[in-house]
Specification:
This protein is mostly helical and 142 residues long. It has 3 helices and 3 strands. A 3-stranded antiparallel beta sheet has the order 1-2-3. Strand 2 and strand 3 form a beta hairpin. Helix 1 packs antiparallel against helix 2.
């Protein structure tokens, strides 16, 4: 298969297949990501899942002696710490697998692949149509 259009199409298909595999790997990794943050003194700890849901909240019995305002601050600190750690873990997983932690880069690359594929398919379609027209002309001469 030496047609440059077909070579381009095969390359684009290979690249997009590889990228889809990488995205699948990221999805699998992210499903397993959790992040736990423990406040100084270990009074409160929060664990979040990759989707940001609260998986676990532990409040040390010593924290129950605090007033509600101080306890609320510790819970907020633990939650925010876990959320920041989660964002970092997600960015690391994306960067390790996709080479970038910027979802915009991934989406832009996907659009570029789609545009390239559309262009090659359009060229191939025109070539096939031209071949059909030529075959029809050839058959009508017989």
């Amino acid at each position: 298969m030496n047609d440059p259009n077909m070579v381009d199409l095969e390359r684009i298909l290979r690249d997009s297949e590889q990228r889809m595999q990488q995205l699948s790997e990221v999805e699998t990794l992210l499903a397993e990501v959790t992040c736990r943050h423990v406040t100084d003194g270990g009074m409160v700890s929060v664990e979040l899942g990759a989707d940001g849901t609260l998986r676990q909240l532990d409040i040390n019995s010593r924290a129950m002696r605090l007033d509600s305002y101080a306890l609320a601050e510790l819970i907020t600190e633990a939650f925010n710490g876990a959320q920041q750690g989660l964002q970092e873990a997600i960015a690391r997983a994306m960067s390790d697998t996709l080479g970038t932690s910027d979802l915009g880069d991934v989406l832009g690359e996907t659009r570029d692949i789609r545009k390239s594929m559309d262009g090659v398919l359009e060229t191939v379609s025109r070539s096939v149509n031209d071949a059909i027209v030529q075959a029809s002309r050839f058959n009508s001469r017989r």
